[in-house]
Amino acid sequence: MDDPILRVRNLSKQYDGIFNLEIPRLEFQSGGIYAIIGPNGAGKTTLLNLLSLLESPTSGEIFFKGQRVSRFNSLSIRRKVSMIMENPWLFHTTVFKNITSGLKCRSVNKKKWPEVVTTALQMVSLTGFEKRYAPELSSGETQRVALARALALEPEVLFLDEPFSNIDKINVRLLEKLIQRINRKHQTTIVFTTHDQWQAHRLADTIISLVGGRIVNGSLENLFKGMLEEVDGSQFARLSADVSVSVVTDKMGEAHVCIPPQDIILSHEHMESSARNSFKGIVRKIHMEGQVVKLVIEVAAGVEFTAIITKTSYENMNLSIDSQTYVTFKSTSVNIF
Predict the structure, then answer these.
(1) Cα-Cα-Cα-Cα dihedral of 206, 211, 214, 218, to 10°?
(2) CATH number for position 176
(3) Burial of 290 by CB count in 10 Å (0-12 exposed, 13-18 middle, 19+ buried)?
(4) What is the pTM assigned to this prediction?
(5) Residues 267, 139: one domain?
(6) Low-confidence ranges of the chain (pLDDT < 50)
C-alpha cells in the first residue's frame, strides 16, 4: 500500500481546559473516499478543521504526503486542500466572481479564469450559471457552487462538512453522484461528515466512527446516552425511565451505549433464548436498500431501535408500518463507550 496522503499521530484539541478530541492514529490514502460519522458533539467538525489546517491542534502531529505540518509550511500545504462548510457562504455577486475569488487570492492569471470556471461548473452540473446572482440560488445550487469554487483550486484533498444536511433529496442524490464522479475522474481524496449511515456506506471506502471525540469500532446506528447501573449483581444501561438494557461491562455511571442493528433479531412472538434483552415494539419506519431492509422500531416513548434484516426475512414476516414485533439482542452485543 502507498504511503498515506494524510496522517495524524497523537492528535488532540482542547477547548476551555477540556479535551474535546483525542485521535492517537488515523490515516487517509490518496484517492479514497472517507466518511466520518457520529452524533452531534462527537467532534466531527473539529477533526475536519484540524485536518484541513483551519485550526491548530493542542498537541500531536499532522503529516501531508509524509511531510510534517508546521507553521513554516502550513500555508503551502493548505493550498493543496479545500474545505466546504456545512452552510457555505457565497459572496453577494455572480457565480463567476464567487468561483474566481479563490483564483484571485492565489494570483492565477485572469486569462485562465473563464476556462477554469466553465470546467468547474460542468463538473457540478451547473453549466451556464456564470452570470447567475449567488443569493438567488437554491440551497442545493449554493452547495454545488461552493463545490465548484473548491474544485477550481484543484485540491488534492477535499473536505466536506455535512454537505447533505440542508438540501432536498433530489439534490442529495445529485451531490452524491458528483462526489463519486470527482473522486473517480481526478482521484481526489474526499473526506466528508454525515449522520446518515446508509449514505456513508453508499459513498465511502472507509467509515470512521467518532463518539465523544474518540474513534470507536462498530456501527453507530443505535447510539444512546445511558446510565450504567448494577441491579442484583447484573449490569444494566438505563436508556430512559422505561427502558433498561442488560449489558456486560465493568464501567458505571454515564456512558454511550450502542447496539449494532445487524445483531437485533425481530420476531412476532417473544423468543425463548439466552438473549437477555427483549422488547415489544411498533414498526415506525421502513427503508429498503437493495436486498437489505432497515426498520425503525419504537419500544417506548423516545426510544427507537434500528434493525437490519434481509429482504427475504422482511417479506416472510409480512411487516409494515405500525406492525407489532419483538426486538431481541444479547447483552454481549451491546457496546459501551
Answers:
(1) -40
(2) 3.40.50.300
(3) exposed
(4) 0.84
(5) no
(6) none
